[in-house]
Amino acid sequence: MSNAKFFAIAGLLLSVMAWMLVSSVREESQTWDEAIHLAAGYSYWKTGDYRMNPEHPPLGKLLNAIPLLWINPPLPLTHPSWLQKDEFKFGLQFLYYGPDSPRDLLFRARLVTVALTLLFGLCLALWSRCYFSDWVTIAVLALFCFDPTVIAHGRYVTTDLAMAFASFLAAAAWLSWLEKGGKWRLLAAGLTLGLAMASKYSWPFLLVVFLLLALAIRAPWKRTVLGLPAALALGAIVVAATYAPVAGKLMPATQSYRRAHPEAILLSKAIEGGFEAATPLGQLATWASARLGIQDHPYLLGILKHAVHARLGHSAYLLGQVSDFGWWYYFPVALAVKEPVGLLLGVALGVVAGLSMWRVPAALKLAGLVVVVYLTIAMLTSINIGIRHLLPLLPFLYVVVAVVLFDRWPRLLLFCILLMATETIWRHPHHLPFFNFLAGGPGNGSRFLADSNLDWGQDFKRLRDWRDANLGNDHLCLAYFGGASMEYYGMAGSPVPHTDDAEGRKSVDCIAAVSATLLVGAYDTPKAYQWLRETKPWGRVGYTYYLFDLRKKR
Known about the structure:
Strand order of the largest sheet: 4-3-5-7-6
Structural class: mainly alpha
Number of strands: 7
Helix content: 55-70%
Low-confidence stretches: none
Radius of gyration: 24 Å
Largest sheet: 5 strands, mixed
């Protein structure tokens, strides 16, 4: 295939993806975390203070906030939430109570993620073309462009897409270093590993992949033994650069240093009396901080907060059950119901075809290792809040499917891609609540999953528009799951009575709109809205708000 034809097809696929990304997100209200991440990233640029949202490294937040530097919206630094380090209230205050349009600020920031997603697709295609045929590469790119999970989370102000992109670059660069050596390839591996380290605290899975890949392709042992520490050192430099304003916190705070810098705070002092100090990692940090003078660098604080999150768990919902510590089968179920049937069919056929493959190229070994290692680690974690956490493995899954099927059954591969594209476009613009047709589609999604798999607050504007167009003088009461300002949207109405509120249930007189995540009890007492779950909904807005007619007869 000529270069012109290849790039024409790739450009067409990426253009269709760009249309789906932009046209779908324009009309959506903010998802739960977006105001938090955007306000935090912008505050890093403007103040050099990393107090907000330390649980996630800063790279993605810094990138999303770049377009705001030209608008220069004011930060609510005098609001109590800044002093209290209340990231939720600070994000709300920044986005909705300043002089600039929240819709405009959010859309500009989202465009950064859109651009990263399209660049991700291009890099995936260029890398695949280095190892496989042009048609295999086109198949990989098509699977990427028509995956509703990538489309859904490739347009929000979150850390997930940045982490997936950085992980892909790091894995690709490490393979190049193992195969060919050279200081520039090692530099690329280290810098891209640093991008992953500065994006999300889940990056250590890459170290497991790096070691297993070296064994799988029988790389020269010196490249592994010397390359891995060098890559980690380079990665640490990248992380330090993203925290440049607080570089002084990297210095050991000896007694003499603290006399000269009274503002220096030891890590042990920063976590004293907090949940972080009670974890095994927190105890180790306290011991090391006291002896080595380690300061309260925000990256270290973030690691400890991440450990606390894992230890305390996070409310999760699966198949009608609620748990704080999840289920080992959560992510396999999420893949089975959230990914298009075309991709699932491709995976199943790929497993069958792969059993007869005797010679596996190095790039395919890398792809398979990432899928197996990352999925295994994900299944062992206690935080089960969304398929978005599997984004780092998806590009490599496409490679496995495309390479294996093209070798045996190219027409079946084409069928899988066309089936996948049809199902994804059919559900446009509702990519976040996408569920495949075997699971019953998005309308049946709450039987399986909730939260960022289905209802993340993205339909709040659609609910407001529906109310304005349909309710007239009738009253709307609301059970809302999301991070947007109800006051800004004019939706600060009455709450929906809980099941145990007998008096409230008798006196209620409204159309009740209940977020799917709250209706199934994912973040509340499971029986909070049991009385409504036992009745047939009057209607629905999007796939996330269930409507119940609780008006009294007149």
